[in-house]
Amino acid sequence: MCSIFVSEARLKRKEDFLMNTYLLAFARRMRWFWKVMALATIAGLLLAACGGGTATAPAPTATPTATTAPTATPTPTVVMVKIVEKNEKYSFDPASLSIKMGTQVEWLNTTDAPHTVTSDTGGTFASPSNITQNQNFKFTFTTAGTFPYHCNIHPYMKATITVTS
To answer: How many CB atoms lie within 10 A of CB 149?
Structure first.
């Protein structure tokens, strides 16, 4: 009779050992699953927070002219606007600019944060994607007027270009 209890006790210990082994393996798999899910969630949130919206800039159209002899193409005037960081705030430098029609404006991002250049008057001009550090965006102004613009990522960043004929 005593050997039956000893035998049952050994079986119980072996059964407990096997059960604990399987539970530990399951717990490890679940921990791994939740770590992967947490990383995927963080990656998704970071991508969503960094923008990713795209806008298309209208392509300037060239008008053909009939000539009998080849003529030199005038080089457009290029004006630089830098995206800078001053006192922990980003801004366009200069914030106000006056140019003549046909002038090309080039925006250069000198900060480590991504930015956009987006016209306040819908569709006039916009960078096709985020402008990252040391990248640029160029646009030639062919119409006279006042063109306020901003950065979609940092809405407090605002500037104005006035184009004269």
So the answer is: 24
Per-residue pLDDT of the chain (165 residues; tens, 9 = 90+): 555 555 666 666 767 776 777 777 888 888 889 999 999 998 888 877 776 555 555 666 656 655 555 565 666 799 999 999 999 999 999 999 999 999 999 999 999 999 999 999 877 899 999 999 999 999 999 999 999 999 999 999 999 999 998
Domain ranges within the chain, ordered by starting residue: 1-49, 78-164
Q: Which of 82, 94, 89, 80 is nearest to 139 (CA)?
A: 80
The SS3 of residue 44 is helix
**Cα separations in angstroms, 129 against 20, 22, 82:** 54, 51, 17
Please tell me the distance from the alpha carbon of residue 104 to that of residue 94, in angstroms, as a whole number: 15
Is 2.60.40.420 the CATH number for 78-164? Answer: yes
Going from the C-alpha of 74 to that of each of 13, 64, 104, the distances in angstroms are 92, 15, 13
Contact 126, 118 (CB under 8 A): yes
